[in-house]
Amino acid sequence: MRPLSVAWAVARKDLTSEWRTRELVPALAQFIVLALVIANFGFQFDSHNATAIAPGVLWMALVFAGLVAFGRAFAAEREQASLEAMLMTPATPAAIFAGKALAAIILLVACEAVLLPALALFFGVQVNASVVLTVLLATVGMAMLGCLFAAMVARVKARELLLPLLTLPLWIPFIVAGGQAVQAEMGGGSSDQAVALLLDFDILFLVLTSLAARYVLED
Amino acid sequence: MTRYEKAAAGAVALMAVAAYFIFIFAPEDALQHQAQRIFYLHVSSAITAYGCFAVVLLGGIGYLWKESLVADRLARAAALVGVIFTTVTLVMGMLWAKPIWGTFWTWDARLTSTLVLWIIYAGYLMVRRLAEPGRQAARFAAVVGIFGFIDVPIVHFSVTWWNTQHPGPVVINDALPAGMLVAFLITMACTFVLASVMIAVRYRIETLLDRQAEGLHAPAPVIPAGEVSSAPR
Predict the structure, then answer these.
(1) Which end of chain A offers a freer environment for a tag, N or C, measured as fewer CB atoms within 10 Å?
(2) What total number of domains does chain B contain?
(3) Could you tell me if residue B187 is inside a domain?
(4) What CA–CA distances, in Å, run from B2 to A8, A75, B49?
C-alpha cells in the first residue's frame, strides 16, 4: 500500500471509532466551555480588556484540551495491542504515525469549532478568518508533536505525568507565534510575520516528527 | 586517589584560578560596579550548558543510529550536567537582574526560552526515570534530546530575534575591554574543564549503574552508590 493510503486508512479507523462512540469530542467541548467559565471567574472581564485577555484564554483552553485529546490518542491501541498489529503489516511507521496525527488534527479542529465561536460569543471578541487560519496552523504542528509524544508515553507507566511534561515545553514555539498572531488579529494589528513563523515551525516539526516516528512506534 | 578524584581536584583548583581572575584581575565595571562580576560565570555556564546539550543531541543520534550504549551513557551524563549549568545560569542571572533591572525575573524572550530549556531537559531526566530502563528509556530519551535541542538556538538568537531586556552578545561583538575579555576567556575555559570532569564522573556512575542493573538477576555483589568513586575500574 502506498503511504498516503495507509495514513488515510489509519485516520479513518480512528475517526470511525470516534464517530461510533462519540466520547472524546463531546467531552472536550464541555471541557472547553468549562475552561471559558473558569477564565471568566479568574479574570475581571469588561469590554476594554477583552481583546487583551481572550487570546490567552484561547491558547490555555486549546493547550489543555489538546493534552487531554492526545492522552487518549493511543488509548485504544494500548488496550487492544492493535499498534503492534499495525506495525506487523508492511505499512511504514511514518505512514501509520501520519494517520494517527491526521485523526488527532481533525478531532482537535472539531473542538476548535466549539472553542472559537464560544470565545466570540462569551467574550465579545472578533474571530475572523485570520484568527481561524492561525489556530489551524498551530493545530497542525501541535498535533504532530502531541501525537509523537503520546505514542512514546503510551507504553510508559507514568504516562499521565510525562505527556504534559514533554509536550508543553515543545509546544511553546507554537504558543509564542500563535499568541502574537492572535493578539495582533484581535487587536487590529498585522500578524503576517507571526503567521509565517508558525508556518516555519509547522514544516520543521513535520519533518522531524516523520523522521522520529520510526524510533518511537517500533519497540 | 583514583583518576576521577584527581580530575575533580584539578577542576576545583581551576575554578579557584577563575575566581582570582573574576574578583581580582578583572577591572571593576564603571556603571554596575561589583554586580557586573556575575557576568563571567553567568555567560560561561550558559555556553557550557549549550555544549552539554549538544552532547545530549549527538549521544541521542549515536544511540538511534548505532544503538551505541556509550553514546547513550554520554547523553545521560551530559543532560544532568547541562541541567546543573542551566540552573547556575538562571540563578546567577536572577541575582544579577535584581540590582540592575530592579527585579529577579521578567518575561523576556531570553529568560523565558532559557527557563523552557531547563524544563525540557528536566523532562529528559524524568523520562529516563519513568520509562522502562534499557532500550525503551534510551530511545525515548534520545528523541526528547534531539527535539529539545531546537530550543538551544532559540535561546541563543532570542536576543537578536526579539527586543529583549537581556543584553545582546558582547563577547563576539568585541564590546569587552581587554582585562574583562581575558577574565571571561579563562573562566570559560575553566568552566568547560569542570563540566567535562563532571560528565566523565557521571559517565562512570552510569556505567556502574548499568552494570548493577544487569547484575540484579544474577547473585553478583551490588556496588552501593556511595562507593562508586572508589570502585576499581
Answers:
(1) C
(2) 1
(3) yes
(4) 60, 50, 27
